[in-house]
Design goal:
Helix content: 55-70%
Distance between the termini: 74 Å
Number of helices: 27
Radius of gyration: 32 Å
Strand content: under 5%
Structural class: mainly alpha
CATH architecture of the largest domain: Up-down Bundle
Shape: extended
Number of strands: 6
CATH superfamily of the largest domain: Voltage-gated potassium channels. Chain C
Strand order of the largest sheet: 1-5-2-6
Largest sheet: 4 strands, antiparallel
Length: 564
Amino acid sequence: WSLLILLTTANNPDVMMPAYSQTRAYGLFFASFLLVGLFFLQNLLLAQVFSSYQDEKQELLKQERRHRETLLVEAFHLLTGDQNVPEDERYLTPEIVRSLIDKLNQTHKNVRHITREQAQLIFAILDQSGDEQVDLEEFGSFVDVLRLRFERTDRPSFVELWFPETYSSDWFQSLKNMVQDKKFEWFIDFCLVLNGALVVSQTFRELTGRADVEDAEVGNGKLDTWGEAGETLFAVIYTVEMILKLWTMGFRRYCHEYKNLFDGAVTLMGIVAVGVVYYPNSISNAKLIRYIVFARILRLVRLVTNMPQFVEIGETFVNILPAAKRLLGALFCIMFLFACVGLEFFGGKINTDPSSPYSTLLSGTDFATANYYANNFNDLASGMMTLFDLLIVNNWFVLVDGFTAVTSEWYRFYFIWFYCIGVLITLNIVVAYILDNYQKHEEHVKSMGSAEQESHHFGKLGTIEDAAEVTGTQTSLKGGYEIRMDAGTYYQSGEEFRLRLGSTRLGSGRSSLEPEERTGTRRTGDEEDGGGDFLGRQLQSTQGRGENNQSMREIKEVLLQQGV
């Protein structure tokens, strides 16, 4: 039992000291045990969990891909109608695709509403051959294309729309170039650094716990100190920055970047704070500006994005969030199950009632000395908290000794099982998931150029310079578009989407979507056999099958009713 505790390092070096104090040679025994058990076997267990996780993940992805493509083949058959038509002569017309999208808009709330304009772009991207028809292989990308967002790149700003002469003037173009130049952002960042230093100097005594008496000039409703004047000056600088960006970029483009929305909100709050301070009233307090401007300093975090290592950590964190809820859900279920069992084993036995026989048994134990009475299984909530403390491992043997004192030493196996399942298996799966995502993300980023990396950070997949012709398909649209994914969706499946749709080139020099060879990633195994070849195999295996998805039948019925 002591060696098991030592394996978790919770009682190191306490368990070793009595023997080591007598003879130093005993230190070799404990050191050898830790080297083998802690540094070798536990890391070997992590490696095994990581390898099993990767194998299971690949198998699940293959099964999901096969199931997905099988359903797409069945949907294609339903939409094309006549089963007697040879396979190579089946195709979807623009009208069928638009009707399908209209049906999705009406019945599927989890699909973003698609406008007629976006529907034309979706069909054009699907129709890679440019023949105004979508065959089976092209239809295989339908679900992926639905996830795309198309944003106009040539939408005129307010100044360009209402004051074209001003917009085309040399001085306005020079101002626009200056605001969009990186040096302008560097200047604002420099102001933020100075602002941060000013706030730290003003709050230094509060931060060090030495602000016993507040200066009479601080918070008196007047801007009569150098610090308050500096905060007001910075608020003016940030206001000018916001006005210049809105003027030169336009409201839509300004709001397109989340950092501008944050900066604008804080700047507006700063303007209101300055107005409140200057205008005498019961809440006129110059410290209000400091509180508002302090939030602005959070923008300094963006300086960290200049360090690629921190960017990779941040993007990996965003990437693991969707699966984190599943892992945490599994951990919660494990803890809930053990908590329910713990209620049966230890419920009501940890208490401070002097008349209780259990209180006498706990007296004199390390559990009672540490005052761990709140860690108990008297109800489900405290049981879950106790298990969480055990999950952290620190001092877990003290908790175990308290519970075994009121029961028997055989109940140690309950805690050993929780340690094996909760710590050695579940938490190692979490570590394996983080390692896998970080490794995958790092390899993907290294395979891209600097321009692609910048687009990658904002979920940008490509651009359409002229929407009149996309992949050889003529549309009634004009102007340019950016092809994007929502940040969460992009980090989850953006790379996989590039691989599946990698062969798509949006026009001849008029548009671009990074293809597979530009990502530097190759498919292996069944992935190389995917795409059209796999769809062909699925086609052969599904011909003559009577099992079809009911929702697919409903779509077909709607299309037939509309005369498509």
